[in-house]
């Protein structure tokens, strides 16, 4: 074979090798974007094949400015959160929950203490947080007595004081819900009230697990990082340094707080709190159940508002399933009235809720949540103050631009309906006939037949 024939043969071999390599490339699914995807190794004749891509859990979560590294969420925890809150691991949150974050009114507005609670789904959560915000603004034990707010003036916090009050409110809610850590002694194990297991959740940048099976990703649950804290001071430091994550438009601040409360309380204990009376903390239309309101206000997800646990019916017969209620006096109270209920079968709120430690009540009037508060703490400590006092009402909706101040006079009981009393234009014919706004009827559940003066404002309930 001469030199020319050898060159042609060598060229043919090179072409065949190149064609074989190209065929192998197409056979194995080679990707041109090598920086984004892993190049698969050639298939072997064995049973075990290499995956085309391997999911990697992110090494770092969001920047917390703390030494707590946190832990990435796993798929089982994510499913448990969904199951406990919405009732199904495949059911995501509604759009109003995803949009909600903690946002105050302008400090120069007429309601500088108020959170925006316009979205119907997370409104109850926002107003429960609002109740603790007012508690810390008006009655914080850390403030000197002369700096607390008394009389008829409501608090007017600056932007910095708004953030501080929100931090303290979140710490109050989380600390109430968290379970005490066990303390070992020489004889037996007891609970340590000074240490609890609080878990705060923050949304990271990348998914922490592959969404598959019956879990549908929503863009934030699969990106959660969990931070475990054991002392109240550590919780406050962590929340203070990361409060911006709960107040940014791009973050689901309300869902992160709700996740934190549920994880701190644990799935099993929440189900035990509800006593098999409910399956989830939200209703089918993503509204807050009474169990969720109780969990946020008292740390216990009991589904009823009476005192203690009812084990027998009105005839003394034992119930198949007891009715768990409020077991101790709450820091913040709760009042309820629904005009659709029959007069003889109205929901009765227990004294544990009616007489809280501070004069602040989350209210539910005809299905709508709001807030009543008094700026004088003496209202719940000195019965003489209840003769004549003022209550401020806040519903959290953007349409409320000024304060609603009600003057309550219990010195002269109202025995008959005042025919000249102006009522809400939204009340039905039955309410028109009664000449009594629903908000007043709610106030009567705490102060029966008191005289309520709206200070010239038209009642809107």
UniProtKB/TrEMBL annotation:
Keyword Cytoplasm in record: no
Q: Which reaction does it catalyse?
A: Thiol-dependent hydrolysis of ester, thioester, amide, peptide and isopeptide bonds formed by the C-terminal Gly of ubiquitin (a 76-residue protein attached to proteins as an intracellular targeting signal)
Give the Pfam families listed for this entry.
MINDY-3_4_CD (PF13898)
The answer to whether keyword Iron applies is: no
Q: Which residues form the Deubiquitinating enzyme MINDY-3/4 conserved domain?
A: 82-456
Name the residues that span the membrane: none
Entry EC number(s): 3.4.19.12
Q: Which InterPro entries match?
A: MINDY-3/4_CD, MINY3/4
Q: Which UniProt keywords apply?
A: Hydrolase, Protease, Thiol protease, Ubl conjugation pathway
Q: Which domain of life is it from?
A: Eukaryota
User: SMART domains recorded for this chain?
Assistant: DUF4205 (SM01174)
Q: Which PANTHER family match?
A: INACTIVE UBIQUITIN CARBOXYL-TERMINAL HYDROLASE MINDY-4B (PTHR12473:SF18), UBIQUITIN CARBOXYL-TERMINAL HYDROLASE MINDY-4-RELATED (PTHR12473)
Q: Which family does it belong to?
A: Belongs to the MINDY deubiquitinase family. FAM188 subfamily.
Function field: Hydrolase that can remove 'Lys-48'-linked conjugated ubiquitin from proteins.
- Name of the protein: Ubiquitin carboxyl-terminal hydrolase MINDY
| Species of origin | Clavelina lepadiformis (Light-bulb sea squirt)
